Structures are given as structure tokens and as C-alpha cells.
Amino acid sequence: MPRSQRACKNDQERPGHRSQNAQAQTSNVCAKLITTNRKGRREVLLLSVSRPLTIGRNAEICSYVVSDPVVSSVHCKLYAIRADRINGIKDLSSNGLFLNGHWIRGSSAILMHGDILQLPSSQKFTCVHSAQANRDRGDVFSSATVTENSLGRWIVTSHSLGSGSFATVRLAMDTELSVHKQVACKTIKRKVSDKRNTVAKEAQILGALNHPNINRVYDVVSDNKHIHIFLELCTGGDLFSYISHYEASAYRLCEGEAQYIMYQLLQGLEYLHERLISHRDLKVRTHPSSMKPENILLYSPGPYPRIQIADFGLARPKSYQETLNVCGTVPYLPPEGIVALDNKLMGYVGIPADCWSAGVIMYLMLSGRHPFDYGVVPGDSNWPSSIVIQSHNTESQYWLSSERNDEVVKRRIIEGDVEFLDEIWGGIPEARALCQWFLSPDPQTRATVHDAQNSRWIRCDLQELKTAYQRRMNSR
Asked: What GO molecular function terms would the record report (predicted)?
């Protein structure tokens, strides 16, 4: 966005303000920030995916100027991620800002409908979402009159970040330090006993892990009715949403960015596999209408993002052992997992399965499509909604888009039917070689994380990757 343009719309026109630009954005607006300036005039700032907002004193840089001396040159940046329905703010100032009375500094936060943002000793902004998400019902925070619940050091709000068949994720705040921090609170009802063990296992596994590319568990609080898991909050959306922004490039990332994201994924997987833990459900959505939850998250918005591996509900310790419990998402299962899915006497090992899933993700980032889950199955809709079903083992679970489409995907995986178009992969032979190695049908010959880190595709830019990685991790 040119710096000279203003991404705000005034109730009363200001000299030189180009109102037609704001009006043209109206249909794409994700949120509005309503404020009253120092002259007592009400102003409305429009936030859209293509036009983020910057607030500060510098008129040459900021899209909205607040001239108070307590305000930094560029105090904060507001952004929108439509696919994830996230409106967020990143503090860039020296003295922070207040969100609903909580002081935050040097971090990103999610802006929910009705939130009040205040610059220190200066203007207030009220956030109004253009499309308000439906409220979840039937959980501990379901009452319309309840906006906050205190659980020890944590304040859990009524703002929902997502919900599933047995758990709800809410926005929460860590109030232990003077500078508060947003976190995610995953709440599960204790009466759902068959799912309780899954969440308890997730908390147990994650609680012992500490790595910049793995979603961190801060605390677990239990009572007679619920288990509350407090998790590190990722404010940049998920990897699919990031890839989907590259519409002009056929939803493909450039090689450098895909390489940087894969480098981080390998760092996280190496940390897990060294501790004999397999994730067993790494995946990226393949279409905006898909209901499959994603577990490759962006820690904060921006190019060359830092990623985190999340959702360890299906993770397995002692992953060197073969398991008969087939779980995961069908389009991301390896051939041995597909075979075991239909044969209760056969099993598979989790670590090679993670490497297969990493290859699928790599293929999707560089080609713009899934290597196996593509096209239309006759008689099915183009992109049917996903549902959860059970396999022959009652403890196993996986996602299925539709039975007929799923049978086609399983056949393609077993047959190794992967197409590497020369127009995409011809110019990146090292990337193609690694992706093919990851997608080897035989788990004994499939690339390991160690193999991938020593592949030519990674080694040729290793120093640059390490430098960029350390710089990003130190800036968190």
C-alpha cells in the first residue's frame, strides 16, 4: 500500500482524504477500528487482508497518525487473515499498549469483536468485526453474561478460537507478569472419557517439550468437570492460509520460502524424533472449504514466517515400536499406514510416517496442490465437507472427505502415483530429489529427518538458513 494513502474512513471528510478508496474496500473489510481523535472527531479505520494498518507518529510511514509524544514513530501494526478469521495486532513500540486494560509489549495479539485497544495515555480504538463468529454453546463459558473466568494466574475469556466434538479453544491471558500475554486455553469436558485420555496425553507429551518450532504447553488446570490446557498462542494463522495468499503464483511458495519453512519443520521433527516421539498427524488443509484442522501454525504474521507444530493429540512416545493403532489424516498417511488401516493384523511405525507427511507438505508448498488428494471423484461434490469416522480399531481415528474420494486417494498413495511436472520441478532438481525421497513407498528406504538435513537441497543454503533461523528465533 502506498504510504500516502490512508486506510481510514471519517464520519466527516478531512482535506485531501480520498474517500472513494475506503468505499472500494468496504466489501473486503474484515474489521473496523472506531476511535475519537484529539479534536473530538469520530473516525473509523478499515482493516482488510490487502490493506493492513500501521498506527504511529510518523506520517510518512503510518496509515493512521497519532501525534502524541508518548506514541512511537511506528507504534503498532494491525493485520487480517481472512481464511482463519483472525484480526491481530503487533506491538512495535518502546512502551507497549493496552488491550482491554492488559498491558502488552513486544508481542502479537488477536483482536476480537468488542476489544478495546489503547495507546498509552492516548487514543482508544474499539474493534468491530465485520462478520462475528457464532458463539459456542454447552461449555463452561457458554453464558452470554460471562466474559472472563479466572483460573489461577490465567484469565479465560468468552472469545472462541475454535471448537471440535470434544474440546473448545478460548482466548486467555497470562497475568502473572507485569506485561501480560495472550495464550490459548483448550478446554475438554471430563465426562467425555474416551477423549479425555487423548487430551491428557497431549498435555503430558507437550509439557516436557521446549522448542521454538513446537507449540508449547504452559500449564494444565483440572477440576471435576474440565481439563484446561494453556498453550502458546500463534497469531499468524495456519500454513494453508499463508500459501493461499499466493493466488497469482498458483498457490505456490517460492523455493526460498518453502525451503525456510521445511528447514524449521525438520528442526521440530528432529527434536521430537530424538526423543522417540512421533506426531502422526502432520497436515495442511488442501482447500478453504475443508474442515480438516491444521497443525502447522504461524507464530506471527509476516513473510518467511516462524512455524510451530501443534496438536499432539495423536502423538506417540516410544515411536520406534510398531503400532496397530492407525491414526491420522488419510491423504497424509504413508502406504504402510493405508495398508494397516484395512488390515487389523498389520501395523506401522510413527517416525517414518512423519517423514512421509513432511514430504506431502513439501510437495504442496512447491507445487500448489496435494500429491494424492486432487481432482474430482465422479458423483461427489468438488470439495465435500470432512467428517470424522472410526476404523476397525475403536481407538483409531482419521479424517475422511468422502468415502469414494478417499478410496481414490488411498489407491494413489499405495501405487505411488506422484506427478512431478517439469514446468514446476524441472528448475529445482535438488528439491524434487528430496521430495521423492520423502515419498518413497518403502519406509526402510524413505528419507529420515537426518537424511533431509544432509540433503543437497538443504546443505547448499545451510549457512543462510541457520542465520535467518537464529535471527527469527532471537526476535520472538
From this structure: ATP binding; protein kinase activity
| Fold topology of 239-474 | Transferase(Phosphotransferase); domain 1 (1.10.510)
The 8-class DSSP code of residue 56 comes to E
pLDDT tens profile 17-61? 334 444 444 558 899 999 999 899 999 999 998 899 999 999 999
For the chain, the distance separating the N- and C-terminal CA atoms, rounded to the nearest angstrom, is 26
Residue 186, marked binder: yes
d(CA 188, CA 226): 5
CA-nearest of 338, 326, 325, 354 to 406 is 338
Q: Per the residue annotation, which of 91, 174, 219, 281 is the catalytic one? A: 281
In whole angstroms, what is the distance from residue 60 CA to residue 281 CA? 46
In this predicted model, what pLDDT tens digit does every residue of 161-210 receive, in sequence order?
887 667 789 999 998 887 899 999 988 887 655 555 666 666 777 788 99
**Domain 8-129 part of CATH 2.60.200.20:** yes
SS3 state at 256: helix
Q: In what order do the strands lie in the sheet with 97-99?
A: 8-10, 42-48, 29-36, 124-129, 116-118, 97-99, 102-104
Domain 148-232 - what CATH class? alpha beta
Q: Is 93 helix (H, G, I), strand (E, B) or coil?
A: coil
**84 in catalytic set:** no
Rounded distance, CA 374 to CA 474, Å?
Answer: 39
All cell numbers assigned to 151: 483460573
**Dihedral class, residue 380 (left if φ above 0, else alpha if ψ from -120 to 50, else beta):** beta
Cα torsion 383, 84, 80, 308: sign? negative
